[in-house]
Design a protein that fits this description.
five-stranded mixed β-sheet, FMN binding, de novo design (two linked rop proteins), disordered N terminus, Ubiquitin-like (UB roll), Nuop51_4Fe4S-bd, alpha/beta, NADH dehydrogenase (ubiquinone) activity, 464 residues, globular, 46% helix
Length: 464
């Protein structure tokens, strides 16, 4: 009996010892694990160069394995949308994998990328366009789609040109079109250039479906899925290397590699592919040469493009760059576009400029966005000039909360979030202190040389 207990205990101990240790450090990413191997355009971006880098390798075999196999690999990988929302990609693509009602299905790729500070998709379009074209084919196969429409930003002239050349090369080589890659599957890819407006990635139909409501019509009244450029472009690598390979990077629920933009007050602004969950401080110091003037000169960082709330230096020292880590920090990963601001930044003016952008780009359909963003814009510029009232500091927060979640598309949320900073952080205290100083300074200018009684009455009225 004692021997049996010892053997059993030994077996349990062996099982515990054999289980792999939980990963606690993330990054840097090894070169052999990079998906985007021509991110800086140092190699040939056309078909010949793409084939040398491994694009279109065994694509026919992937297509012939079928819809269920592709969807399963994407689900195993844990891939979440790279456009900002972070919805599980395998689940999203699976919504389209239903018996046909006779209508064709379409994939729409959002290559608009109009958000300030964001430029990751642009690098794919001009330096690695074949990754996107191949990704469209595989994603389209997973959905049973007939064609892909790539909606590209109007200002992206060179990127649009390179992408069209890549599509033409793929057609000429028989990789897309009728009998794509010799698989018996027909699939077309088209480019649609926008007119320069800021278009938000919107998933209204998906949300309506999840809530049991009637879904909105897609392209040409047919079933449609909208996906981000980066999300689609990584699909071939996941299918070739396996979903478990992609899953091995990053934390649970935050797996894979990710493109990060780093701009602002850093020594070397760049776009880099790194492991998800890498610490923000490591990302900036390793790839962007650190903050201008040293880490101690850091004021704040916008971690996910202009539509995400900024975080102060204290939070930046510990936060991990993934969906869950940044949500815990009361901001978001968004497009993973870091905008770094040092202590020389007029942070009130910076936020005012962002709000002005959203005010300009609002289509005006939703009243909270049309009226609320315009109101916030006027208030922020009053803060900049110093002619606002202290009560407006709390008022702008309340206005942003009335905009957030009350608009059809995500532009309203994007406009509201930059002014929303947790009241417990040093940033809001910095905002308040600077705003109050400007208000007092402006009042002092107006009071100089005026009647004392009038001056006191004027100052009291403005401080109410």
């Amino acid at each position: 009996c004692t021997v049996l207990l010892l053997v059993t205990a030994g077996s349990l101990y062996a099982n515990v010892q054999l289980s792999p240790p939980k990963k606690t450090t993330y990054g840097p990413l090894a070169d052999e694990d990079r998906i985007f191997t021509n991110l800086y355009g140092r190699h040939d971006w056309r078909l010949k160069g793409a084939l040398k880098r491994g694009d279109w390798y065994k694509t026919k075999e992937i297509l012939l394995k079928g819809v269920d196999w592709i969807l399963n690999e994407v689900k195993v990988s844990g891939l979440r949308g790279r456009g900002g929302a972070g919805f599980p990609t395998g689940m999203k693509w699976g919504f389209m994998n239903k018996p046909s009602d006779g209508r064709p299905k379409y994939l729409v790729v959002n290559a608009d990328e109009g958000e300030p500070g964001t430029c990751k998709d642009r690098e794919i379009l001009r330096n690695d366009p074949h990754k996107l074209v191949e990704g469209c084919l595989i994603a389209g196969r997973a959905m049973g789609a007939r064609a892909a429409y790539i909606y590209i930003r109007g200002e992206f002239y060179n990127e649009s040109s390179n992408l069209q050349v890549a599509i033409n090369e793929a057609y000429a080589a028989g990789l897309i079109g009728r009998n794509a890659c010799g698989s018996g599957y027909d699939f077309d890819v088209f480019v649609m250039r926008g007119a320069g407006a800021y278009i938000c990635g919107e998933e209204t139909a998906l949300i309506e479906s999840l809530e049991g409501k009637q879904g909105k019509l897609g392209v040409f009244g047919c079933p449609t899925t909208v996906a981000n450029v980066e999300t689609v472009s990584v699909a071939p690598a996941i299918c070739r290397r396996g979903g478990s390979w992609f899953l091995s990077f990053g934390r649970e629920r935050n797996s894979g590699t990710k493109l990060f933009n780093i701009s602002g007050h850093v020594n070397h602004p760049c776009t880099v592919e790194e492991e998800m969950s890498i610490p923000l401080k490591d990302l900036i110091e390793r790839h962007a040469g650190g903050v201008r003037g040293g880490w101690d000169n850091l004021l704040a960082v916008i971690p996910g493009g202009s539509s995400t709330p900024l975080i102060p230096k204290k939070v930046c020292e510990e936060v991990l760059m993934d969906f869950d880590g940044l949500i815990q920090a009361q901001t978001g990963l968004g497009t993973a576009a870091l905008i770094v601001m040092d202590k020389s930044t007029d942070i009130i003016r910076a936020i005012a400029r962002l709000i002005e952008f959203y005010k300009h780009e609002s289509c005006g359909q939703c009243t909270p966005c049309r009226e609320g963003v315009d109101w916030m814009n006027k208030m922020m510029w009053r803060f900049v000039r110093g002619d606002a009232r202290p009560a407006e500091i709390d008022m702008i927060w309340e206005i942003s909360k009335q905009i957030e979640g009350h608009t059809i598309c995500a532009l309203g949320d994007g406009a509201a979030w930059p002014v929303q900073v947790n009241s417990s952080t040093v940033i809001i205290n910095l905002h308040t202190n600077r705003i109050i100083k400007r208000i007092i300074g402006e009042l002092w200018k107006q009071l100089s040389g005026k009647d004392l009684v009038y001056s006191l009455r004027f100052s009291i009225l403005n401080l109410i």
